[in-house]
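ok trying this again, last paste got cut off
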Amino acid sequence: MNVIKLRSMLEQFYIEDIGNGDLSGAFLFPESASGELNLMAKMDGIFCGKSIIQECMRIIDDQTTVSCYIADGERVEKGTILASAKGSIQSLLKSERVLLNLIQRMSGIATETSEVVERVKGTNARICDTRKTMPGLRMLDKYAVRAGGGFNHRFGLDDAVMLKDNHLAFAGSISRAIRKVREGLGHTVKIEVEIEKLEQLKEAVEARADIIMFDNCTPEEIMEWRQIVPDSIITEASGMITKDTISEYAKTGVDYISLGYLTHSVKAFDISANVSVHTN
């Protein structure tokens, strides 16, 4: 993870949340008051967000002492203490909400990814994400997918060429679209083509696409059509795929299965933050 970028993101998040100051904490606790914050898992799953905890505390108050007990990608049980922090009670309370929002989201993504990865074990299929991430949180969302055992698709429009129906309609055909793109594209960048019909697949193979995505195709169609795809072309399945059907898609022999819901329909992982005030 790019820590420099992470710190910049977190600073903006805290500017939004704190505004001109924490009115609740400022009037209740003297600046000299100290305390401890404990983060506890309230469900079973995969934890993700160690760097978030460390950097959040550091940004608010670099005098805060942070201890993280669980590594990213590690499975935890309900009741597990994930991390603790000691320092100014005002600082701990200022840090709490942004920190929790992020690690609950990231741990939720990691947990869901892990469950899906488990369902394709024994096949060659790799689970990957999409660009359907929360704006501003793509780096964290995709990091969480990796923590859950998944892989990342492109991070943005500048990573790779992905020719979808709108591109193909404008170009007139798959072969024309690939030829036009290759004329100006650097040799290190891959070209992926989205197909839904057998005729499109044949054209994509003939045009030497680097990656072919079977979009909204059934497992039966993919199993049959994949036979005409040479080993030099990476295959991917996407669309209409759920946890209940993913094992059938994995058995088709595709290299990747991309799932947008991993990041666009996140169920937060339940984590509590309990703060105690030290008394002299």
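PB: full thing came through this time. The chain is about 40% helix and 20% strand.
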